[in-house]
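As the next step, I wrote out a protein sequence along with its fold in token form, included below for the reader:
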Amino acid sequence: MQRLKGSISGAAHPLGKDEVAPLRKIQRDQPIGTQHIFTSECDGTSVSVEWFQKMLKRVGVECGLPLVLPHQLRQSAGYALADKGRDLREIQIFLGHKAVQ
């Protein structure tokens, strides 16, 4: 996936134990051979950007947050990593930012 606004593409996203465990459970509950964590209920293929945006809007409304954007989730992930004491450079790479600012 090509990122926008000149950010770093292909950055690895390191995951901790508390993040990997729930993803492994989702993976175990899926049919053998499934290649993606999040799949279409119709045919098991990977979900689209449009699907994700619609799902995020629906879930945001259900939670009382009518305007939730994917970029807000990225920034929230950065704050959460900082709160956990992760290295600033690691957060910069995770978010795909060229500059630490």
Summary: The radius of gyration is 16 Å.
